């Protein structure tokens, strides 16, 4: 898929996400991804599983929030469908699904989360928004450099990943019940930028540049 075609897909959502994220993915990370296509798919599959698991965890913990239950139920189904699509790609490309360690990214964000509700829930939702936004941004950055099948697949994920970002952020704002969460967003944005731009030791879907 050409860059021109990509720009026509969900341009409003992409523009919103680019405004939300504190920085763009470094070019060196794109080079890392192209150097390690099998590892990129393996860790992408892991990310989809973890995203579904996070949504289910929120469903189990916050049973009195019906909007959260509905949005997270849909999100979990979509993430598991994406997982199925990634492993189907891996099978066609004869990529063995080996174990790889988690990146520092999610853990680095969660270090800043508060321990008690409602602050804890707000922070978890804001973190979810950053993870989904970064995933969406990276799909868009990668697509023009990939073969036709993978470019089409990653472009197809933009709409759902963009909606997941919006769902997480919208829920965080509602849980805050009128309190401004800009300060929390800024706190996580600063950490997110360091995690994305600082040199990393291992390539992962959410790693910094190696």
CATH homology superfamily: Ferritin, core subunit, four-helix bundle
User: CATH top level?
Assistant: Mainly Alpha
- The strand count comes to 0
Number of helical segments with 4 or more residues: 10
- Give the biggest beta sheet: none
Shape, please? globular
Estimated helix fraction: over 70%
Counting structural domains, the number is: 1
Fraction in beta strands = under 5%
Radius of gyration: 17 Å
Indicate the low-confidence ranges by residue numbers. 1-8
Structural class call reads mainly alpha
Architecture (CATH level 2) name: Up-down Bundle
What's the CATH topology label?
Ferritin
- The ordered string of helix (H) and strand (E) elements is HHHHHHHHHH
Q: Mean pLDDT, rounded to whole units?
A: 94
Question: What is the first-to-last residue Cα distance?
Answer: 26 Å
